[in-house]
Amino acid sequence: MSEIFGIPTQALFGQLMIGLINGSFYALLSLGLAVIFGLLNIINFTHGAQYMMGAFCAWFLLNKLGLNYWWALILSPIIVGATGVVIERLMLRWLYKLDHLYGLLLTFGLALIIQGLFRQEFGSTGLPYAMPKALEGGQNLGFMYLPIYRAWVVVFSLAVCVATWFMIEKTKLGSYLRAATENPQLVQAFGINVPRMITITYGFGVGLAALAGVMAAPIYSVNPLMGEHLIIVVFAVVVIGGMGSIMGSIVTGFALGLVEGLTKVFYPEASNTVIFIVMAIVLMIRPSGLFGTQK
Amino acid sequence: MEAPAGQRMTGWWWSRVPPQQRAAFLVMLVFFLAAPAVIYPVFLMKVMCFALFACAFNLLLGYVGLLSFGHAMFLGTAGYAAAHAAKVWGLTPELAILAGAAASCALGLVSGFIAIRRQGIYFAMITLALAQMVYFFCVQVPFTHGEDGIQAVPRGRLFGILDLSDVKAMYATVFVIFFACFLLIYRIIHSPFGQVLKAIRENEARATSLGYDVDRYKLLAFVLSATLSGVAGATNALVFQLAALNAVYWTMSGEVVLMTLVGGLGTIFGPVVGALVVLGMENYLAQLGAWVTIVQGAIFVICVLTFRRGVIGELGRFLGKPL
Q1: What tens digit of pLDDT does each residue of A230-248 get?
Q2: pTM given for the model
Q3: What's the number of domains chain A is made of?
Q4: Contact criterion met (CB < 8 Å) for A120 and B136
Q5: Domain that holds residue A187
Q6: Residue A100 CB contacts under 8 Å (≥ 6 apart), including other chains
Q7: Torsion of CA A69, A108, B301, B252, to 10 degrees
């Protein structure tokens, strides 16, 4: 067996693959956070809970309604996104004129409620979610064994991220969104329904979280606490990347996943904390984040 | 709000305290003196520890406008440091509490230095991330004993004389610590330093333009808040003779935000009332497992949507005087 720096290549590439998968989730989640923050000026603490809801939604669709993974991939973001729309209409819209901190506190409270309800109903042990048939098995690439599903997660997340970037940066709809981020009053004066755009944006960001949840379901078990730690890591990712740039969120997400994977190989004790350490270093050198602009 | 100028700068501090605050202070004093007769003293000691924790947190959020979502790291670290000092080094309780406060002070200096580089929402996310890092550190290092925590911490003899294993002696000690720190916080808020903090909260750019080194003021406020949280955490560890992981976990950071919010942000007595309400609710719902979290979440939502001033804030508004 071949080795690099005394580490078997199988283990090295295996961990890098897991790093990339986590990176995909970081990218999808931080992308959603950045889009929501851009327009609503709210940090969505419920994001982790909504990622978990996405996974549970997939589980329900499979086990109660018999709809498979591919249906879940489409329906779950729509359903969870719809709950997001309800939250925005009923609660968040009252907070836009207040200090940003109240949005954080409200969504934190919602996260506690959602996670508590799911924990009350399903306990803290996970529910298994079967791998879709078409993506089972793997491919031996010579230097490593590549499970097909993991490759699919990375490729599909990347595609979703790039599509989102394209939609926001290159289409007309995206230009409305960017304009409303800059100056909502002016855009409203041009006859665009900004409140509705805000609602849709929140639903979209939440849908991205749910999509990540569906993809995570076959890898990690479906668990009420699955989003709890993840959201804190994603916050660190967002601080590192800065929320100013869409592409920045995507690149930072994937890169930090890789950094975490590498740490697992070379110094496993620090694998839980490495992203926070990177955050501290970035704050020292470039406080506005790698891609951010200081406002 | 402004007292007549001649009256403000002279006399014993008590004569400068507005009457409604004097009354509230006396109510609080009498409550904690009389309550052990009817309420379980250990619960009251917990309330005082967390009231101090919430007051220290409020010093930062209510008076500088910085929302720290990682204050559990100070509570937990001080608890571990004090428990270790008392159990392994065999220090007396007052020295153990000082050791805890010193540990939090050092941690506050480092984390504050990193966190104050960003403002607003980023500040909250950074402190949360740093606290999670401290949590993982506490999970991994051997001296915290991981999931078990540091158990059977000896309360010891205060100044080598007073045996704290007696509940009354312990209660008196916690009582003195709480009121001393409460008055210290009151003094900080009303000092010229505290006025600068409020100026930073209201308009940071203007404070800078007036020549104040805003970052230094923020860092000092952060370290003070961390140290006082540490005193609370160390005392709490001695009361329960236990330092465990739950004190470092992010849910604890959320809890102190909730206490302050329920009681009233930026009020002097609010955090104390908030600690009493939140801990009372938890005590009442303790058997119901995850429902505690759900109810906490619901209180958050209700407070943010309809009750942003909190109990004491609303009371103060009703009276037309700050409490």
Answers
A1: 999 999 999 898 877 888 8
A2: 0.91
A3: 1
A4: no
A5: 29-227
A6: A41, A42, A43, B120, B121
A7: 130
